[in-house]
Specification:
This protein has 199 residues and is of the alpha+beta class. It is 30% helix and 35% strand. The protein has a single domain, classed as 3-Layer(aba) Sandwich (Aminopeptidase).
C-alpha cells in the first residue's frame, strides 16, 4: 500500500495513521500480529472472568465486562496518542485469539521507558507463545531503533512472566512500586541484544 509522510507521521493512502510501535502485519513462527478490534471483546472477556489472570496484580476491580471495556478503551487511547499498545495475537493454525503482546510507552520512577507487555488467555499458557511474541516485539523494537533498552514490568510473585522475561534476554534491573504493586523491572539493552546476535 502506498505510504507518504507528513510531520514525521506515516499514513496509509486512506489517511489512517500508522502507529510506529504496533506490529500489525508482522508474524512469528506460530502467531500473527494485528491491531486489536472490537470484535475480539467476547473472546478477551474470558481473560477478565478468570481469577487466575489477576492474582499477581492488586487493584480495585469492577465487573469483568466493565474491566474488559476499560482495557479496550485504554488500548485505543494508546493507539490514538502513539503511546504504543497491545497487538492481538492470532494462532496461525486455528485462527483463534491467543492473547496480546506489544510495545508500551510507560513512565517508571519518572523515567519514560518502552515496555514489552504480554497477557494470554489461560488455555494458551505453557505453549511458548508469550516468549515467542515477546521475542518478536524485542527484535522489532531494536531493529527499528525505538529505544536503547526495553523493559518488562513484572509483579514479584509472577514467576511465569519472569521466565518469559529471562528467556527474552532480560535481567532484573531494579525493584520498585508501580501502580501500587511491588514489581521487578526486567531490562535488556540494545548493546546486549547485538552481542547475543553475534554469537
Amino acid at each position: 500500500m502506498t505510504l507518504f509522510t507528513i510531520k514525521q507521521f506515516k499514513f496509509k493512502a486512506d489517511n489512517s495513521l500508522i502507529m510506529k510501535y504496533l506490529l500489525a502485519g508482522q508474524e512469528s513462527t506460530n502467531l500473527l500480529f494485528r491491531e486489536i478490534q472490537e470484535s475480539d471483546f467476547g473472546d478477551w472477556l474470558e481473560f477478565h472472568k478468570d481469577p487466575d489472570t489477576s492474582i499477581h496484580w492488586i487493584s480495585q476491580k469492577e465487573s469483568p465486562e466493565i474491566e474488559c471495556r476499560k482495557w479496550y478503551d485504554y488500548q485505543f487511547q494508546r493507539y490514538k496518542n502513539d503511546k504504543g499498545g497491545m497487538n492481538a495475537l492470532i494462532e496461525k493454525q486455528s485462527g483463534k485469539l491467543v492473547g496480546h503482546c506489544g510495545l508500551l510507552v510507560q513512565t517508571i520512577d519518572e523515567i519514560t521507558e518502552l515496555e514489552i507487555g504480554y497477557s494470554l488467555l489461560k488455555k494458551f499458557w505453557n505453549k511458548g507463545y508469550a516468549t515467542e511474541a515477546a521475542t518478536k516485539c524485542r527484535n522489532f523494537a531494536f531493529e527499528n531503533n525505538f529505544s536503547a533498552s526495553l523493559i518488562s514490568i513484572i509483579s514479584l510473585s509472577n514467576k511465569a512472566s519472569e521466565k518469559v522475561a529471562l528467556k527474552n534476554g532480560m535481567q532484573v534491573d531494579k525493584q520498585t512500586i508501580y501502580n501500587g504493586n511491588e514489581v521487578n523491572i526486567f531490562r535488556i539493552t540494545k548493546n546486549k541484544w547485538l552481542l547475543n546476535n553475534r554469537k
